[in-house]
Amino acid sequence: MNAWAATTDIAVRFRGFKKAFGPKVVHRDVSFDVRRGECLGLLGGSGAGKSVILRSLVGLEKPDAGEVWVENENISRYSEQSLIEIRRKVAYVFQNGALFDSMSVFDNLAYALREHTQLTSEQIRKRVLDTLKEFGLAGNEKLFPSNLSGGMQKRVGLARSIILQPSIVLYDEPTAGLDPYNTRRICDMMLRLKSKGATAIFVTHDMPAAFSVCDRIAVLKDGKIHAIGTREEIERQDPWVAKFIQGEEL
């Protein structure tokens, strides 16, 4: 029986996920679901393995044991060829924007469309310009990454990541190092994507950003999901989580 038969509202599922790098065990037994259309905040201390979780969803890390499900498919042992279609569905927003330095803003966004779609040049141009406008970046298409501020680089990186109209978006600390104004702009963009039905996982150390965007919060501790739920639920259930969220000494 298909494991998803009774769980069609689940977009991402981890079951018994284990991962070690040499003698260092990062994940001992991680299990959680992300509901279709929700944004799940993934919190934890430095070295807790938050980014490893994200990387496993696009096949950049393979579990030592356990399963990773994306939109009905167990991708845990997928080949690189099989992962191509998954990577069209799942956008990865890197912390630093990860733009191509030698390409203009326009070409950074157009690259994936040229590689992975059959759109005409005019259709690509329209989608790129429409996306830049939506993200408050109209008029910057001829600039190169070196001409952009840090905040603008992150916004262009976010715009590029969703140009293929993915169903799932993975945010790897997109607000790190930003001032409050640019943090708010990134969060507003995330909320806009969420309003369109995108499923998301938001890895962050920025608690206010997480609480402004996320429907639920999952906290990684000692290689497992220590708590998961709304902020009120997990703070009420666990004094350690309450202290962690409030930034108190543990």
End-to-end separation in angstroms reads 45 Å
Biggest β-sheet: count, sense, barrel? 6 strands, mixed
Q: From the coordinates shown, what is the CATH architecture? A: 3-Layer(aba) Sandwich
The radius of gyration over CA amounts to: 18 Å
CATH C-level label: Alpha Beta
CATH topology: Rossmann fold
Low-confidence stretches: 1-6
Strand order of the largest sheet: 6-7-8-3-9-10
**Helical amount among residues, as a percent range?**
25-40%
Order of helices and strands: EEEHEEHEHHHEHEHEEHH
Question: How many helical elements?
Answer: 9
* Spatial shape: globular
Would you report the number of β strands?
10
Strand content: 25-35%
Structural class designation: alpha/beta
What does this structure look like?
The protein has helices at residues 50-56, 80-89, 105-116, 121-134, 150-161, 180-195, 207-213, 231-237, 239-245; strands at residues 10-21, 24-35, 39-44, 65-70, 73-74, 90-93, 168-172, 199-203, 216-221, 224-229. It has one domain (10-245): 3-Layer(aba) Sandwich (Rossmann fold), CATH 3.40.50. By secondary structure, it is α/β, with parallel strands linked by helices. Helices cover 37% and strands 26% of the residues. Mean pLDDT is 90; it is low at 1-6. The protein contains nine helices and ten strands. Strands 6-7-8-3-9-10 form a six-stranded mixed sheet, sandwiched between helices.
